[in-house]
Amino acid sequence: MQIVDFIGQNIFWILLAIFAIFVIITAYRANSAFDRYLEMREKYTKMPSSLNVSAKTLGEEFSKIHFNGIIKLEKTEKDGPDGSYIPKTQTVTIKEELLENNSITAISVLAHEFGHAVQHFQNPEILIKHQKLNRIVKTLGNLNPLIVITSVVLCITIGYIYAVLGLGILLLNTIVAICLKLRTVNLEKNASQEAVKLLENYGFNEADLVSIKKFLSYAKNTYKADLVCALLGWTGLTRKTNYF
């Protein structure tokens, strides 16, 4: 009975402690996903593809063959993501260090961004919706510290019942954000699938395709980690990094 009474009297603090432990573990896993991606990026940057063609040349060929030369190819900022696709200008950007490179990393990043170009040409609104969803998730994440602080204040000034209600709102907020972000993860997964199709049609051998798929799978994990960063960035425990 004493244990039950103790739990009943301190339920909010117990839930808060569980939440804090969950946050720490989740943040650690997210940071590990980024670390693992960087390890694989370095490994595959040193691994040339079987075809002696640079990412720049490949991008120009993709644009010519699949997009009637509409897609432009530019180098991105040194401190920015490895690559990106800009729907408004129909431009694929890639880091300068990868642009003239024929490594698995360079080919994978370029092909992934052309995968987004395929999505854009199939459905012009899909990437715009994707950007809006990302903004909503970040907004929900920014509300989390306010909810936590309000819950603590309510617990101290009024009672733990109201604080538990606050944690319930926090949980609901997190669930909504996860559901929205999962759509983004699926979009990125589909872009990688489109990338592999482009490379298969271009003539890359099976060994290259296996390595490219592995590299893209590590990249996919960083998209999932981005969800954690969006939700827990306010804690200072996660990195605010987006590679491509």
Structure, described:
The chain is mostly helical and 244 residues long. The chain has eight helices and three strands. Strands 1-3-2 form a three-stranded mixed sheet. The chain is elongated, with a radius of gyration of 22 Å.
* Mean model confidence by pLDDT: 80
Helix/strand order, N-terminal first: HHHEEEHHHHH
Distance between the first and last residues' Cα: 55 Å
**What integer value in Å does the Rg equal?**
22 Å
Number of helices: 8
Instruction: Give the strand tally.
Output: 3
Kindly state the percentage of residues in helix: over 70%
Structural class: mainly alpha
Largest sheet: 3 strands, mixed
Strand order of the largest sheet: 1-3-2
Strand content: 5-15%
Low-confidence stretches: none
| Net shape | elongated
How do the strands and helices of this protein lay out in sequence?
Elements: H1 2-9, H2 11-45, H3 55-67, E1 72-76, E2 83-86, E3 91-95, H4 96-99, H5 104-122, H6 126-157, H7 160-202, H8 206-232
Parallel strand pairs: 1-3
Antiparallel strand pairs: 2-3
Helix pairs in contact: 2-7, 2-8, 3-5, 5-7, 5-8, 6-7, 6-8, 7-8
Offer a quick outline of the entry.
By secondary structure, the chain is mainly α.
